[in-house]
Fold this sequence. Notes:
Elements: E1 7-12, E2 22-28, H1 36-45, H2 47-54, E3 64-68, E4 76-83, H3 91-107, E5 112-115, H4 127-142, E6 150-155, H5 158-178
Parallel strand pairs: 1-6, 2-4, 2-5, 5-6
Antiparallel strand pairs: 3-4
Helix pairs in contact: 1-2, 3-4, 4-5
Amino acid sequence: MALTLARIELWNGDICDLEVDAIVNPANLSLWMSTGVGGAIKRRGGDEIEFAAVRQAPVPLGESIVTAAGSLAVRAVIHAVSLDRDRRTSAPVIEQAVRSAMARAREMNASSIAFPALGTGVGGFPLDEAARVTVDTVRDELERSPDIEHVIFALRGAAAYQAFGAVLATADQVSASTGVPQ
């Protein structure tokens, strides 16, 4: 098993305030960015982010594409399609979207990436399950991502922060008791 050296951090705040190589947008199939995290990214980074994304649509559920970041202090926005036509999601779709976003980060040689809680806002997916799927998938993908040194889970509100914190704490306890590096 490869030793994962990436730093994983929780951050309670606006993903648009971060200075990382890439931020992840929980996108819909058409890649329009009107509400939630996507709306915030568009408002802060500019309409050109949405225009660049929509030109690449449609994107299959669970896949992702990369665009420039407009005026944000990041190199790129990774649009991870995690919401279906009815703006709903599932654990397998979130897992696939996270894996795809990590693959795009590897392709762009990112050393840092920030994820929101995919599917939990507009998508209505349970926070606890989204946290478990996202954290577990990111940790698994870090084994294939030696250049990614820093992952931030950028969360809004106490409930999301606590859900992701609980999953990270549980995973850390398991790794400490088994001696498996995380």
